[in-house]
Amino acid sequence: MKMRRAVLILTLTMTSALAGCSIGRVNAPPSVFDLGLDAKPVPALPARAPIAMSLQAAPALSDTSMIWRVGDSAAPKAYATVRWASSPTELVRQRITDRLSRQGPVLADRVNLQMPQLQLSLMQFEQVFAEDGQSSEGRVVLQAVLLNGRAVVDQKRIQVQAPAPTQDAAGGVAALRQATDEAADQLAQWLAGVVQGAPESTPRRGFGPRPGPSYEPAFDTPAKSSAPSRSAN
């Protein structure tokens, strides 16, 4: 009985001591990152007619966690002391909007149903480490669908990997910044081939100047030839 009481007293003493050690301790705030300034030159492409753009993402990319994983593991993890300034969904939307706007206006909503609409799905946005932990890369995967009204004009899957300069969260941020910019540039090049150019001073087929806010379709009309039709990427 005395031995049991002694063990109980010792346990309570240790618990109180450990609790006392944590009193007053304040955890350091997490480091917060964004994609930085958009200073990278954009591809030299012709001016493009206005488009509307929307972006949705996988549920795991809807908060500010910075995700990483090892190889093709099905167990993604999040850095405990690192956060994004906004959700990856919002960061990628802002970055792509900024870069695509260099070729032509990018709107959040259609002016009318004839305006081209770019629907993007962000499938992956994470730092992926090699099995040995000696290297890592930022991976960005986008699925793009271009609509004319309710009709699908074309679609494209974009997958970009960029090497991380360091094997930590900061290296992952740098790699994801590079991968996002490259993905946006691939989108711009793809759109240049499926959406007509900017309107000219004289009316023509496409987004020609017209009274009021409405526009005509901006999609190229396929030429009659024996060449195979465009296939979806």
UniProtKB/TrEMBL annotation:
Bias type Polar residues, positions: 223-233
Chain ranges passing through the membrane: none
Segments forming domain ABC-type transport auxiliary lipoprotein component: 56-188
PROSITE patterns linked to this entry: PROKAR_LIPOPROTEIN
InterPro entries (alphabetical): ABC_trans_aux
Signal peptide residue numbers: 1-19
Region feature Disordered, mapped onto this chain: 194-233
Record's keyword terms, sorted: Signal
The name this protein goes by in its record: ABC-type transport auxiliary lipoprotein component domain-containing protein
